[in-house]
Specification:
Blueprint: E1 3-5, E2 9-11, E3 14-22, E4 28-36, E5 43-48, H1 56-71
Antiparallel strand pairs: 1-3, 2-3, 3-4, 4-5
Length: about 80
């Protein structure tokens, strides 16, 4: 399988999880899961992003930033964790 989950972050009531996928042409696509709630009240919105990237880390960083924007958090306010 050529898709990968990256480190998730919990911000308030949300769990933000970026996902990347290697494409046949060598580029990477990404999406982000934005989950809230627990048990039967869990909601998970997956946003498929259209921008493509040359490397997996850039795609994951972009997906995380878009997830943070979606919940109203400025991405610059969150440190980037590489290899954590």
């Amino acid at each position: 399988m050529n898709s990968a989950f990256h480190h998730s972050r919990t911000i308030g009531k949300y769990l933000i999880s970026p996902l990347t996928k290697a494409l046949e042409n060598g580029w990477y696509a990404c999406s982000v899961s934005i989950r809230s709630g627990s048990g039967r009240g869990t909601t998970d919105r997956v946003v498929r992003l259209t921008r493509l990237f040359r490397d997996r880390i850039a795609a994951a960083d972009y997906a995380m930033a878009e997830g943070l924007r979606w919940i109203g958090v400025a991405p610059a306010a969150m440190p980037v964790l590489r290899g954590a």
